[in-house]
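Data deposition worksheet. Section B asks for the primary sequence of the deposited chain exactly as it was used as input, without tags or linkers unless they were present during the calculation. Section C holds the resulting structure in C-alpha cell form. Section D is free text for depositor observations; keep each observation to a single sentence. Incomplete worksheets are returned to the depositor.
Section A, Depositor: J.P.
Section B:
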Amino acid sequence: MNLLNDIEWRVSTQQIAYPEALAEMESRNAAVQAGEQKELIWLLEHPPLYTAGTSSDPTELLSQEFPVFETGRGGRHTYHGPGQRVGYVILNLKKRKSDVRGFVHAVEAWVIAALAECRITARAVDGRVGIWCDTPDGQEAKIGAIGIRIRKWVTMHGFSVNIDPDLSHFAGIIPCGISEYPVTSMKQLGIAIKLQEFDEALHKTAGAFLSAID
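Section C:
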C-alpha cells in the first residue's frame, strides 16, 4: 500500500513569496480539517527572508537586510532563501497518531533519512532544535531546521534543508536561538546536488515517515 496515494505531493519550481505560501497553508489546513481537500506535502523555495516563530526573541534578529515575517509555527528566527529546500506538511493527525512530539520526531527522522540517501550522515540532538551533522573539520553544524504548528490536529509548516544557499545570509539572525554552532549546507559538505535530487530522496523516504505517524 502506497501511503502517498491519498496525499497531494506538490513541487513548486518558481520561488514562492512567504505571504503566498502562508495563505495557501492556512487555506489547506482549514480544508483538510473540513474534509474538503487532500492532505498536502509541498516542496518549494522562498526568496531571501527571515521568519519569526512563536518563541522568537527580537534581540536575535541582527539585520534588516531581508523581510521578516511573523509566523505561527513553533521556534525562533529562521532564514529561508534560494538553494534551500523548504517542505510544508499539511497532514491530519486526527486520523493518525495524535502525538505532537511523535510527529516532530518523525519529521526529523524523515529529513535525516533523505540526507542519508544523499550520502550525508545527520542526526537530531536532544535539547537542540534542528538537524545536525559534522563538518570535515569535526565541528557540529546545523544543516536543517524544523518548525511545526498544529491546528485542530492538522499540521502546518515543516522543515528546511540547506542544499546550496548563501550561508552568509544566516548572519542576520541567531538561527533558532543557537549561537554556539555554525550553519552548513550539503554543498559545503562536498555534496553537490540539485534540489530535484533531494526531492527524490524525500519522496523515496516519505513512506517510512508516514508509517511512523500512522
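Section D:
The radius of gyration is 16 Å.
The helical segments are 18-33, 100-117, 195-213.
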